[in-house]
Amino acid sequence: MKSIAEIEERIDEIHENPAADAATELLHLGEEVLEHWICARGETPTEAKKEGFRLLALHRQGAKGDPSFNACRETCRELVYHYNLVTSQSDHPEIEKRVQLAALVAKHLVLFIGGKLQIAGLGEFCCSAKPLRENEIVNP
Fold first, then answer.
1. pTM of the full predicted structure?
2. Going by fewer Cβ within 10 Å, which terminus of the chain is more open, N or C?
3. 94-132 pLDDT tens trace
4. Rounded CA gap, 104 and 2, in Å?
5. How far apart are CA 38 and CA 115, in angstroms?
6. What are phi and psi of 89, to 5 degrees?
7. 133: helix, strand or coil
8. Helix (H, G, I), strand (E, B), or coil: what is residue 137?
9. d(CA 30, CA 45)
10. What is the pLDDT of residues 50-75, one digit of tens each?
11. Within 10 A of 32 (CB to CB), how many other CB atoms are there?
12. What are phi and psi of 53, to 5 degrees?
């Protein structure tokens, strides 16, 4: 699993991929950051899907017992929306803009969860959260 910092860095580079590949990778990066949250809580990330997407099932799992985590529900849904938009209309004249918007949404998810890990103190004993705390990569 990539670290939070590596996920954020990859999102910044995503424009190098063809549109459909970029949208798919952004969706997977969103899943990875949710896996960090779930693992930091001592749980095993689900492989299930909700409404056809693992990202939404991971969000549901991550929100159990922490109502404040619902703040990123719409961000997850928006990432799914952009994925669907890009992959269903790959010849759209504004496809690059759509991928950029998807990348911004994915980055928002990374920053939210990275911040939650710091504020909640989760991941203090988790090797994947160590770079986050040491490098203070979460910037407002």
1. 0.83
2. C
3. 999 999 999 999 999 999 999 988 886 554 433 344 444
4. 19
5. 14
6. -135, 60
7. helix
8. coil
9. 13
10. 999 999 999 999 999 988 888 999 99
11. 21
12. -130, 130
